[in-house]
Model the fold of this input.
Amino acid sequence: MLIDLHAHSTASDGTETPAGLVASAAHAGIDVLAITDHDSTAGWAEAAEAARALGVLLVPGAEITTSVGAVSVHLLSYLHDPGDTDLSDLLADARATRLHRARRMTELLSADFPLTWDDVLAQAAVGATVGRPHVADALVAAGVVRSRDEAFASVLATTSPYMLGLGSPDSVEMVRLVLRAGGVPVVAHPLARSRGAIIDEGVLEAMVEAGMPGIEVDHRDHSSEDRAWLRAFARRHGLFTTGSSDYHGSGKRNRLGENSTTPGSFQRIVAIATGLEA
Done:
């Protein structure tokens, strides 16, 4: 069974529609796919319809932007109640914050590059969570850079003068909020140094103490040493581990199924979400 629990659609910063994402997963031989758009559940219904038609088991989820101090932490939430008011309100606030940051960054960039806000909006699907990847795509379209990766490594890098902070909710509190909404929180790519500063062991332990039951280990931005350390951390704290592609369509080089989750870990996610694991 091939299980990929981290993938994005045009509901955030992927390049394939939710239905297209599911179709790509089916073509790649994925049996279980999680749709985890940034701070959004907008793609769930379309993805679910496609999954039923194509025989893929869909796990509805989201990748929630959180922080500890100045360090950005992404938290995957699986199978939470989309109608939970506290969580849905926070996700709406996060999308508004992303939109405001992208617009301000575009204003800064426009002083030095041929870029307008309309150029950025042209790269996003209707209703998408507009953010830094769409700014990157607009820079590609304008000929400033050749790819998203090049944009993130240069003009949109975390150390760039055009980069602005996001002001995200606290990571530990978000673990608790996801649990209250009936979801299963799993920290995404915690040692991905290429993305900027990483959280330390103490923060991970605080998230575990708050109830986080799992951690994403197998990810292309983790070295073999990172994966070994995370597996040891998971064993010490009784966590399940996941592996996934973090697929964005043509937006990134990540390929569906390049890392995967074991059936045992997936079963624990389902058991926690359904209350079968106390």
In short: The longest helix spans residues 85-110.
